[in-house]
Amino acid sequence: MFAYLQKCEPPSNDKRWKIIAATMRKLGNERQALIEALHSYQQAFGYLDKPGLTYIAASLKIPLSQVYGAATFYNHFTMKPQGEHACVVCTGTACYIKGAADLLKSIFNAEGVKPGETTPDGRLSILTARCFGACGLAPVVVVDGDVVGRITTDVLEQRLRKVLGHAG
Amino acid sequence: MLAEELKNIAVHEREAKAAVGACVNVCGAAGCQSLQSDALAKALVEAAAAQGYGPESCVVRKVGCLGLCGAGPLVSVEPAGIIYQRVQPSDAPDIVNALQGPPVKRINLDSKLPFFARQQRIVLENSGRIDPERLEDYIAADGYLALTTVLSEMTPSDVIAEIEKSGLRGRGGAGYPTGLKWGTVAKAIGSPKMVVCNADEGDPGAFMDRAVLESDPHRVLEGMAIAAYAVGASEGYIYVRAEYPLAVARLKTAIRLAERQELLGNGICGTQFNFRIAIRLGAGAFVCGEETALMASIEGKRGTPRPRPPYPAESGLWGHPTLINNVETFANIAPIIRRGGAWFAGIGTERSKGTKVFALAGRITNTGLIEVPMGITLRDIVFEIGGGVPEGRHLKAVQTGGPSGGCIPESFLDTPVDYETLTKLGSIMGSGGMIVMDETSSMVDVARYFMEFCMTESCGKCIPCRAGTAQMYNLLGRFVDRTATRADLAQLEQLCDLVRNTSLCGLGQSAPNPVSSTLRYFRPEYEATFATEGGE
Ligand SMILES: Cc1cc2nc3c(=O)[nH]c(=O)nc-3n(C[C@H](O)[C@H](O)[C@H](O)COP(=O)(O)O)c2cc1C
Ligand code: FES
Asked: Which of B50, B171, B324, B465 would disulfide-bridge B508, Cβ 3.0–4.6 Å?
């Protein structure tokens, strides 16, 4: 057994680790809890990092490499800190046909960031997703958790200015 | 809960509903919810109170998907049968005011439109009619009647025989006969057995399963419980995409309510039958829709497929015999038991029975969710139900089956929709995504779009898929950039064959479909992009 697998303590005193511990306990602290644990980890902290993954590996008694493997395999999980605000552009088929690429272009022109990037000031992250199941309203963008359907480049620019608190 | 109690609840609920003067239903599924249907429901409640309606004369309910998502938020008024579209909270007083008289003209949607009239609803029979968060609503619509019938009057083999008789085929894409699959799991040796519901809905541009889960979650639970009884399973899992938070929340509520009434859990309906259902979240990997990858993911591993056999029916979750079906497949079970396999088999075509739910999207007037009998033509779907292509443009192709499917050109629109015909046309039925494209879409771009999807979603386990999709993506890029040659075209075709025939799982095997179908029907578009005339 590797040494790191024996020390089963959360990386910090942060209370949020209790939620993650509870998720793992509910599923018997076994391997099958891994994906659920990563979900609750990301939900609590916004992104995953090595100390946290090590803690999960130790709790579930699986090698860190496999935890890391799962964390990087699934698109939903990220190991980069996210900006204060998130704008997720749907690039599913319906939204693609209805001009998702134009939305991304206009974001790049206005904010200078591409999908997967965060503005240098850490205020805004741009992400893409494969379909929110709101294809009837394509193109769809999710801004800080709010789904906005039938969006145009103008409305999106306005919306981003609003969440970022820019004047105008 | 016993059959008798169930009946009492149903009678009571129906009486209570009949006693209310009018019922105003607001769509609370994800599409309309994103258009602030919550605020709308609140405005309607306030308007009703302001105009002197009490709980006995008018109730405002949140229901599931009403279908025409593109015209949301939608509101329906019962028993008058009125539907309103693009409703704003400011319309609420007028809607309440019109309860006694003719409908509000400016937002009224003709419920006799072919969009509604041409549909035949089995899976969606309750969608938009019941409150998905109330178990009583489902019971009043004959919910859980099939489960109690099965438990009290049928043996497991009776159930399987009935499903076989119905001719139901899997709605997850491949169309494998459901009765046959159930029979295999029932015969498999090993315990405990598992039932898994595939709610990963990976096809980007499809939202049938989301709508079913959000609008009528108990229907899926009931189908799973009947399946569990038939195959002898005691544990169930629903694997849902994390992108569907509302569906997950409604499922959790539904499971909790059903357990409280002993419709799930231990000793279901006072019998010895035990069946628990747990929810597992996906994490944004398309390949996890593939059954062996899905099971790996539930087990807490990377979602990579493995070769079959052994099939999940023999060795699935943790090596136990496992039945895995799609959401819509399970949603068909209760009506089949209630109304008989013969009734179901009377709908549809010779080899494709029943109805199919499609998600209409793209360049089409009526975007939304429809359920139609198998065998209907694509033309009827696109032009009659879908209202055709907007802005005076022309239809170029209909894409079915998502990244695993193909593009069907206008000249084949009169073909009936069933599993075999769509496959013959170089596409597939798929799970039900249907994207309409007009002349503004370049078929080469579309092919590259899907190839990019398959390339990024390839799990990387087998080389033909991992390297082949990347090669094809690069080749397609040359066509998009107009630097391609005839040799590139030949190589592209060769790679289609290679990747199709040598990949490990369905992802790679079907990844060439969008390319080969566009090459088959729109070849000149590829040739027009050659760098030199003739492409030498
Ligand atoms: C790459 C890939 C993705 C798939 N995605 C889904 C999906 O999202 N939903 C689904 O129900 N089936 C999906 N399937 C099909 C499943 O493997 C499986 O056949 C299906 O869940 C069986 O259920 P059924 O018999 O009810 O159709 C996918 C298959 C492949 C190869
Ligand atoms: S394709 Fe964008 S929501 Fe479905």
From this structure: B465
Among candidates A73, A91, A93 on the partner chain, residue whose Cβ is nearest the Cβ of B402 = A93
Distance B486 CA to ligand 1 centre (A): 36
Residues 213-272 of B with CB under 8 A from A: 242-244
Q: Enter the ipTM.
A: 0.93
- DSSP assignments along A16-62, one per residue: HHHHHHHHHHHTTTSGGGHHHHHHHHHHHHSS--HHHHHHHHHHHT-
CA–centroid distance, B23 to ligand 2, in Å, is 31
Confidence of residue B534 (pLDDT cuts 50, 70, 90): confident
Ligand 2 atom with the smallest distance to the CA of A100 is 2
CB contact under 8 A, B362 and A91: no
Quote the DSSP letter at residue B380: I
- B122 Cα: distance to centroid of ligand 2 (angstroms): 25
Instruction: Note the pTM of the prediction, 2 decimals.
Output: 0.96
User: Which of B366, B381, B387 shows the shortest CA–CA distance to B432?
Assistant: B381
What is the tens place of the pLDDT at every residue in B233-285? Answer: 999 999 999 999 999 999 999 999 999 999 999 999 999 999 999 999 999 99
Q: Residue written as tokens 């949301």?
A: B72
Going by CA atoms, what residue is nearest to atom 1 of ligand 1? B507
Residues B121 and B370: their CA atoms lie apart, in Å, by 8
Query: CATH assignment of A85-164, given 3.40.30.10, 3.30.110.30, 3.20.20.140, 3.50.50.60?
Result: 3.40.30.10
Domains of chain B (ranges plus CATH)? 18-111 (3.40.30.10), 142-339 (3.40.50.11540), 355-438 (3.10.20.600), 443-527 (1.20.1440.230)
For residue A125, is pLDDT > 60? yes
Q: How would you classify the pairing of strands A85-90 and A141-143? A: antiparallel
Atom of ligand 1 nearest to the CA of B203: 8
Span B459-469, pLDDT tens digits: 999 999 999 99
Residue holding tokens 């096809």? B203
Mark yes or no for CB contact B30/A93 under 8 Å. no
Dig out the tokens for A125 from the structure.
Answer: 């992250």
Nearest Cα residue to B72 out of B80, B63, B22, B355: B63
**Residue B34 CB: number of other CB atoms within 10 A?**
22
As a whole number of angstroms, the distance between CA B466 and CA B458 comes to 6
Of all ligands present, the nearest one to the C-alpha of B312 is: 1
Query: What is the average per-residue pLDDT within B437-459?
Result: 96
Cβ separation A70–B302 shorter than 8 A = yes
Ligand 1 site, residue B402, Cβ cutoff 6 A: no
Q: Which of B343, B433, B419, B332 is nearest to B381 (CA)?
A: B433
Q: Do A75 and B283 touch (CB under 8 A)?
A: yes
The pLDDT of A112-132, averaged and rounded, is 92
Q: Does residue B283 sit at the A interface (CB-CB below 8 Å)?
A: yes
Interface contact flag, B70 A137, Cβ < 8 Å: yes
Q: Express each pLDDT in A33-92 by its tens digit.
A: 999 999 999 999 999 999 999 999 999 999 999 999 999 999 999 999 999 999 999 999
Q: Which residue of A23, A29, A31, A35 is the best one to mutate when testing the B interface, meaning the one whose CB has the most B CBs within 10 A?
A: A35
Question: Which ligand is the nearest neighbour of the Cα of A100?
Answer: 2
pLDDT tier at B536, thresholds 50, 70, 90: confident
* pLDDT at site A4: 67
